[in-house]
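Bug: C-alpha cell stream looks shifted between consecutive jobs. Job 1:
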Amino acid sequence: MNTSTIKAMLLWIAVVRWLHDALIEDAFDKIENSHSEEKKVTKHSIWVHLLRNAYKRKSFKTKQA
C-alpha cells in the first residue's frame, strides 16, 4: 500500500474537499450577485472558517519573514 496515496486521501477528506466546496459556492455567489439585485452570501461551516483562518495566519507569517 502506497503511503503517499493514503496521505493524499486524508488531506482531501480533511482539508481540500471543504475548501473546494466553499470556493465553488463563493464563485457561484459572485456570478449570481452580479446578475441580480438581491445579494446572496453563503454561510460556510465552522470547519471552513477554521481552515481559512489557519491559512491566513500561516500566509501572513510567511510574508512577514
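Job 2, same session, no restart:
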Amino acid sequence: MKKSFDRFLVCSLLLAFVLLTLTLTAQEIRQAPAPLFRDPVYDGAADPVVFWNNYEKEWWMFYTARRANADAADVAYCFGTNIGIASSGDNGKSWVYRGELDLDFENGKNTFWAPDVVYFSGKYHLFVTYKKGVRNHWGGKSSIAHYTSENAWDWKIEGMLSLSSEDVIDGTLFQQEDGTWKMWYKDNSQSWLAESDDLYSWEWRKNPVIADKPHEGPIIFEFEGYYWLITDEWAGMGVYRSNDLENWEKQSYPILNQPSSRTEDKPSGAHGDVVVIDNNAIYFTSLIREGSSILKLNSMKMEYCLIPCVVLPFRLQN
C-alpha cells in the first residue's frame, strides 16, 4: 500500500553551522560530515541537545528517536519514541549510537520528546516532553517531566511540571546571573516562560513571551554580549536577541529556511541546539527530509554580530 508523503519523512542530525567572531584561515577550518549523525536503528534522530558528560569524559547528544522507518499510520512514527543517546570520543568529529534512556515511570508504552539537560548542584537535570501512550495522529495531553542523574545514564523521575496548560512541550533552560533558572517552552505554538530557584518548583508567566509567529522548539543561549532565542517556524528558524532575557528583537528573516545546493538537502532546518564554546556558537539541527540529507553550511546568514557563517572546526573543547 502506498504511503503518504508525510510517512516518508525521516530525520537526521546535521551540524548546521558555526558562527565565529574570530578570523580563521582556511587551514584552521575543516568541514564537518553531513549528516553528522544518523540513528542506526530508527533513522529518525530529531530535537538534539549536546552536552559534556563529566562522568564519561566525552561529548554526548540526547535526541528524540523518531521511528522514521516504521510502517505505521500518519504520524505514528513520532509517538512511542524514547530518548536516544549518541557520544563522541574525538571532540565532535564522529558520533556513535549508545542506545536509549530508560525513563518509564508508569505502565505501558509511552512517548518522550525534545530533551534538555543542565548540570546543577552535582547532578544532571533532564527536562523532557512526556505524552502518555502512542497515537496515530497528533493529539493528547503533554507535559514536561523532570529527572535527575549523577552519571547521565541512570535517571530518577522527580515529577511533572505544573505549567500554563496540559499541552506543553520543548523546554529549553538557562541560568541567569542571579542564579534564577528560566525555561522557555511551547504552548499553543507560542513560547512561554517559567522560572525557578532550584529546578524543582516553577512559576510560569501568565502570558506568552514570543507570540509573533507560530513556532515550536525554542532554544536559548548567550553569545557575543546578547541572549539569543531560536525557534522552529516549520519553514526555517526564527532568530531573536535580547539584552535582558525579557525584551526580544526579531531579526528580519529566518535562517535554514531554504534547501542548499546539495540534492537531498531539503526542505529546511528544524528544532536544534546551540553549544557555545569560547567565541564559537555551534548549531546542531535536525532536518526532516525524504531520503538521506546533508546541509550546506556556508549558505546561512544571520544579522547583528552573528555574521559570518563558516564551517565548523572539528574540535569541541569541554
